Amino acid sequence: MRRFNIAVLAALTLSTALSAVPAQAYSGPASGASGAPRLGLENCTATACHFDVPPGTYDVKVLLGGDAASATSVTGETRRSLLPETAVPEGERIARSFTVDVRTPEGEPTGPAGTPGLDLALGGGAPALAGIQVTPARHARQIFLVGDSTVCDQPGDPYSGWGQQLPQFLRKGLSVANYADSGESTVTYLSNPQLWATVQPLIRPGDLVLIQLAHNDKTTDEATYRANLEALVAGVRAQQGRPVLVTPIVRRWFNSDGTLNNGTALLVNGLGVDHPAVIRSVAAARGVPLIDLTAKTKALVESLGPEGSKSVYLYNEKRDNTHTSVHGATLYAELVRDELAARELIPRGLVRVG
């Protein structure tokens, strides 16, 4: 695969047109105003693209389509879904744009460094990439995610966190910086220098920080759990960021009557600490927006029933009733997207629907 290694990236204003455009409208890679080459199609094979860029936030514009009808999706870095499958009629081209966070480590903060630069993979039923342009994002907004294995960028199939699926539901101008990490509790997230001490200084004024930590607070007493949530909220506000508390996704643990009304499903720990209830209480007391993902996922899983909900989790593959499949993580990411939009925590123009 051919790679570019450049010192300066040319700034380029990209159109975000969402309607079909003729093939001749795309001129291909060329030099920018400063003479530096644009990062374009010459960095791609039929199934993947690599761009030698430093850590940062980048706008990506893709032109999809070909002589035959096509259907293309885009994932990037550690299996992040960046663009949902997009169908294009034969002979037409459709432009789509998104913004992506490039960092080291590229996935979980305590995981391997990954591959330097920006890596994208083309998927879908019949992928066809007619053009691509990558430029530094000058004024992008950011959503930081603080969480555990149900949120993180999972490194391998069949696992997926909902944070890994969230980027595909956002448009250019808003990126997801997923700093969720497997196995973390509120205690470990605050104490590990690779986690909160790394994330907090990166928060800029106005950035959203979604906090979902509960699954691993199995031995955390209520006073400590509450104090830890309050510390995270205060830390976000100290950076002039906007904290959002998120109650944890349910475990798929049914009662005989088909409900999830039990401590295992609803994240009540061995000390009797009702995690969702404490999160709701802290949100109310501190004036923090709340996404009640426990209630949302409970309603969804109960509606699917014991059999239908198996595909949402990894029951069939691993007998796992806690971690979600790509399908389940996508459903849960949609719930988060809907709540962010409904509460006007992000502009509706930056939300991708359908």
UniProtKB/TrEMBL annotation:
Residue ranges of every copy of the SGNH hydrolase-type esterase domain listed in the record: 146-298
Pfam families per the UniProt record, alphabetical: Lipase_GDSL_2
Family matches, as InterPro entries: Galactose-bd-like_sf, RhgT-like, SGNH_hydro, SGNH_hydro_sf
Keyword Signal tagged: yes
Keyword Signal part of the UniProt annotation: yes
Keywords: Hydrolase, Signal
Family to which the UniProt record says this protein belongs: Belongs to the 'GDSL' lipolytic enzyme family.
Name this protein carries in UniProt: Rhamnogalacturonan acetylesterase
